[in-house]
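Course exercise 7: structure representation. Students receive a sequence record and must write out the corresponding structure in token form. The form below is the worked example handed out in class, using histidine kinase (555 residues). Read each field label carefully; the graders check that inputs and outputs are placed in the correct fields and that the protein name is recorded exactly as given.

STUDENT ID: A-19
EXERCISE PROTEIN: histidine kinase
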Amino acid sequence: MSPTASGRRLRLGLPRRVFSQVLLMQVTTAAGVAVLATGLFLAPLGDQLDDQAMRRALAIAQTTAEQPQIVADLEHSAPRPDGPVQREAERVRLATGAEYIVIMNREGTRWSHTDPSRIGRHVSTDPSEALAGEEVMEIDEGTLGRSARGKVPLRDAQGHIVGAVSVGIAYDSVRARLISAIPGLLAYAGGALAVGALAAWLISRRVQRQTRDLAFSDIAALLAEREAMLHGIREGVVALDRAGRIRLLNDEAQRLLGIGEESVGRSPDEALGAGRTADVLAGRVTGTDLLTVRGHRVLVANRMPTEDGGAVATLRDRTELEQLGRELDSTRGLIDALRAQDHEHANRMHTLLGLLELEMYEDAVEFIGEVVGDHRATSEQVTERIEDPLLAALLVGKATVAAERAVALWVSDRTRLPDRLVDPRGLVTIVGNLVDNALDAVAGTPHARVEVELRAEGRTAVLTVRDTGPGVPPEQRELVFTEGWSTKEPPAHGQRGIGLSLVRRLAERQGGSATVDEAEGGGARFTVVLPEALAEPEPQPARTGPGSAAVEATR
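STUDENT ANSWER:
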């Protein structure tokens, strides 16, 4: 071994591993605490005990002086060993554990004393301060030795000083006892230091296992890399401790959940409120790729338990994918409707061609008028009741799709909705989801029918969608609005159970409600109430129309 290498090995300095550093620091801390505690214990203890003893003596003296019977006995009796003042003083002394209670008159003559032979004699210490009206605390030498004393004036009912009360508590030298106790204290301190060193070693071993004997610099680097990774990925990460409290939120999780750093340390229920999202994060709902709705976002959540009893949940934003999937479903439905209409149009053209070849010109003209009139009536009957173009176009399109599915889609004669919606797109989403749900419910049933009613009550919009399907059992009327709940098979692009949940979320976001009950004659009736959904009304001419109009597309 070279001298240079040997010198490097013998160089003093802090060890690099966490185990060694923690052990060294804890042993040093334990030794310092033992020395400091011993010094801090010895230094003020004597003064504290002196002060406590004097205050106790003064309190006993004050309590004794407040007894009016003692004043009366002092003024109307002689100082005798069997006198009433001596009896009362001895009673108080035995009850309080004081060494003596001396009651004197203004001349300093004792009316009570622990030694009855001293009654009637002048006190051994100067009572002038107490007789002058002052309260005295001191440690002094008297006839009974060193004691902590409290002296107070004794006053009659008019407040005149008629004597004084002196109380003493036996008190040996605390400092002398402390000096004799120093070897024992040092022995205790040494024992505490040994226990502290053993505890430090055990803690260091545990830290070594938990940190896998990494250096502090390695741990710091791993932490920095973890922070960069967590806040850099485009997936929400929520970590919970074993008590179910949130201990970590990355930036994406905060954005998706709509919460901030103030939620760290709180449970999911406290941070998010009651709902499916909190249930998923807390582990009350289990499974993989769980769908949940937070605000206007559709999220996919997965939760993985950790070894320490906590869990890590990941969140993916599926809002755009869900919208694209629904648009794909709508597009497929429209394509099917267009394909069917193309087939129907070809049949009509063949019929028209046959009429022309048979030279039945009047019948051909009547046939064309019926076809064109049916389509025109469909659009006009919707637009005269629903003035908003988006909603009217939606219902006309849904009517075509319904007709191809052998379902009659009707707009109620009570429908009246002016063109002053505050959020027409939100209402389009609600109507579209409810109509789609109703069409799914009645598909394949005899005499399938869906009725839509939209009316304005002041600034409130009320939507009702009725169907002739099997209905919703009472015990499931709240479950149908839960994210991820559905009785149907999932579509090719993902999962069901989102549409009705979005309907309720959109309604509640506007201060409204979404409910379901049984329709007249059977089936389900969904009702959505949206307060403040319309702008301030303007004067409108009265409109009248026929009864309930069918918007069933003609085949």
